Amino acid sequence: MVLESLSGVSEENSRLIVKKAMEDDPEVLVKGWLLREVSGGWLRQRRFWFMLTADSLDCYSGPERDARRLSMLVLTSLCSVLWPDKHTYKQTGYWSLTVYGRKHCYKLFTKHFNEAVHWACAVQKVIDSKAPVETPTQLLIRDIEENKFNPEVVEHIYQHNPILTYTQSPLYAPLLPFPYGSLDHTHMAGKGYTSVREEAVRLFNCLQQLESAPEPVPLIQGILQTSLDLRPLRNELYCQTIKQTSVTHTNTTTQTEPNPQLRYWQLLTCMSCTFLPSSSVLRYLRFHLKRVQSVCVDSEVESYAWFIAQALEKTRCRECVPSWEEIQGLMSRQEMLCTVHYPGPGCCRIAISSHTTANELVRKMAERLGLQDSRNTFALFEQRRSYCCPADRWERVIGGGTIIADVITRFENLSVKEPDSEWRLCFKLYCLLDTDNISTDSIEYLFLYEQCHEMVVRGQLPACEDDLLSLAALRLQAVQGDYSALAPFPALEQVFPARVLEARALLTPADPPGCPPPFPAGLLAGALWGHKRREEQDQRLRARLREEAALTTAAILERWKALSGYSRRDSMAAYLTIARQWSGFGCTLYEVDFYISSTGSFSQRLWLGVAASCVSLYRQGEAEALECLPIAQICSYGVSDSNTFRITAGDRDLLFETSKLTEIMQLMNAYFSATRRQLGKDDCITMETTPKLRPSLLELPSHPV
Q1: Chain centroid to CA 428: how far?
Q2: What's the pLDDT tens digit per position in 250-279?
Q3: pTM for this structure?
Q4: What does residue 75 show for φ and ψ, rounded to 5 degrees?
Q5: Three-state secondary structure along 186-203?
Q6: What is the 3-state secondary structure (H, E, C) of 498-564?
Q7: CA-to-CA distance for 184 and 226, rounded, in angstroms?
Q8: Angle, helix 324-331 to helix 404-417, in steps of 10 degrees
Q9: Residues of the chain with pLDDT under 50
């Protein structure tokens, strides 16, 4: 079917052109007037006559038979079409399409959307009809695959095809086929990338720079980042690195000669721990590693080949480029040491690999600390602490399948962006299934105590003021021992919730009694007076906060003095005894911005408490629960939209609006899994034993129980 594009041509003339075209040019698929972007001159767009055939898109000066052909874009399977978009239309008033060829591209415009779509569809159909282009490297890889059991033929292929082996010459074209076209219209435009083909050639240039680079780590990180950003380049990078590490019987190095390919092996090691190629390139890589081990006499190269082969069995695509420390370890084929903190001042140094997950590190930490037999479960958290304000802390649980090396890389990047903050890993109690039978001599008891204190100073333990003062005094006794006038007193927010002080200060009237507000004349005078009045109110509030802090400190000191003789263990036990008075002790609290029940009632600014036995709702600062749902009654839970969490219990639906969706989902999954393990499949809680029980947040919005 011939599609006609006749912008600016009268209806009578268009019928004549169509008839003549169909009689004289049966091979023409589409033709018509289009505007084309041109460089030079005062007109950016000029009108040309275009004809699309089964092999090319041709540009003519006009529709006449003897019109001069100005240019021709040969269409192959590597050509690409950029379809019309609204952004260009809003800017120019024209619908545009761009056809990319090997040497140049056509950027075409028309006022009619349907016409632009017709052209784009027709050109794309021609491109799709072309046989896939195969490069010499692809053909040779196929030959090697077919003859892999015939070593003589394989060696003959390597010796007579330099494209497969190490070279010091530059690369002028990619080893694999890539579509023509720019990356300016993609989300990678802001990163400075041009086209995939050009980036592939640049990549090889970066590879060759590794040989002489005094410090290869930044260069390796840049190469890996480019491949993570541009997914099609991963196969190309593997093929380029395989080429630069390939040897033949005639160019194998001896033990005494320096090996120029060593840096390429180090890069290949880092690649094998960051992302995998496609299945066909992966087969070629595995064959390459076996061949190198059989041909090469360099023991270090053989060690790299063995290490890479092992890594390929474990690697899944990483989120981040390996950190500086990880790359240094991979270059020497060594594990790296990871510092993991735990509640209190302690920390452990654990050896991890590029494949170690959070679950594996939790198991290692539990074994190191003797907690593997605990009935409670543990998890890793990422924490941020401010050097300027120690009380300013943020933490988030790390998913069990998360690769720890990615977390460390993220910390390395964040430490550059936020030099005033410290990022670290912390090993903590996660699911509190049994808090009554923890030995007071165990480190688990210390975890319970420290995490309880964190909740107190965050203001997440509902207690009367008298209990809060007692808790602060017990904390000082446990940490510093008996009171001494010479003992330093820590910042008040480290032992007493700052929220309570702020609430107390806000209860004081902003204006002193008996001081009527003045009414200055004039708009400017009123504005200046309002600003001055706000400053005075802020000063009075800060003064009131200082007064409240001084009164609270004095009260804490009096109680601390009365605790003389209490041992650390006694102080911790007394602290937890007071905390256990709250019925929700052991739950994890999440702030909920909005809540609505199935009856239509709603509330704002609540706490959602997730525990082993129930899920509860509290008004912030109040000890009694508004709602309490036993775990056994929960039918399903999950995410209903971008920031809403739903829990269904029988005929009741509870909806929560919160920013902690992922954390709530992970904790509820962990509690149900731990409960199922302990109670067994035939107990009162029945759950489906399908992969749906551990959904990802985006794959499964509702979680059946």
Answers
A1: 23
A2: 555 554 555 778 999 999 999 999 999 999
A3: 0.81
A4: -95, 125
A5: CCCHHHCCCCHHHHHHHH
A6: HHHHHHHHHHCCCCCCCCCCCCCCCHHHHHHHHHHHHHHHHHHHHHHHHHHHHHHHHHHHHHHHHCC
A7: 15
A8: 130
A9: 1-23, 255, 510, 519, 681-705
